[in-house]
Amino acid sequence: MNDTVSFTAMKDGTAEDYALLAEQEHAYNAGTADRLLRELRHQADETLSGYQITRMEHGLQSATRARRDGVETDWVVAALLHDIGDGLAPQNHDKFAAEIMRPFMRDEVVWTVEHHGIFQMVYYAHHYGWNPEERQRFRDHPYYATCAAFCERWDQASFDPAYDTDPLESFEDEVRAVFARKAYDPTVMQVGVVKGL
């Protein structure tokens, strides 16, 4: 079997071509966790200036706080990766991160990550003349309280250079376990289930 497809336009592909691509895609998908961990390491060097810690340290600190609160693995990994999109999608990093997580995590966790940016505005928007209560438009959503708690307990509090933060290596097994799950498994996604924090 060849290691590349025969076509130059997708409509001309054969069954053999698409069997090859499916095999290669499976191997590539299996490396998702390692690519995410590599991106986190990259955030140790390339980050937004002005903060006392790097973006990687912020993710690690958020995840450490979640872990020490004794929450399930999805929350720890979500806290670690919630800002993973900062480098490529600074204007919508929250939605970017949520889409990475969506196939592998519980819906409540993904919704929280997807909306944490607007929920965080309560802490700083008034300094820019913006509406700090923008999140109130979601007040009737079943995950509202969970997102508010995520922001209060882990995200907004995790910019402290003196905090005793767990190293990235200590989270690697959890990241690999989450991203090794079958994508879009309804028993994992649990759409509409509210467990809270």
Please tell me about this protein's structure:
The chain is an all-alpha fold and about 200 residues long. The protein has a single domain, classed as Hypothetical protein af1432 (Orthogonal Bundle). Helices cover about 50% and strands about 0% of the residues. The chain is built from nine helices and no strands. Helix 3 packs antiparallel against helix 4, helix 5 packs antiparallel against helix 6 and helix 6 crosses helix 7.
Order of helices and strands: HHHHHHHHH
How large is the count of helical segments? Answer: 9
| E-strand count | 0
CATH fold-level label = Hypothetical protein af1432
Query: CA-to-CA gap between the ends?
Result: 50 Å
Helix content: 40-55%
What proportion of the residues form beta strands (DSSP E)? under 5%
CATH class: Mainly Alpha
> How many structurally independent domains?
1
Q: Report the sheet with the most strands, covering strand number, pairing sense and barrel closure.
A: none
Q: Which descriptor suits the 3D outline?
A: globular
Q: Can you tell me the CATH architecture?
A: Orthogonal Bundle
Q: What is the C-alpha radius of gyration, as a whole number of Å?
A: 19 Å
Low-confidence stretches: none
Residue-averaged pLDDT, rounded?
91
Question: How is the topology of this model organized?
Answer:
Elements: H1 15-29, H2 32-42, H3 55-68, H4 73-81, H5 93-101, H6 107-120, H7 144-155, H8 172-179, H9 186-189
Helix pairs in contact: 2-8, 3-4, 5-6, 6-7
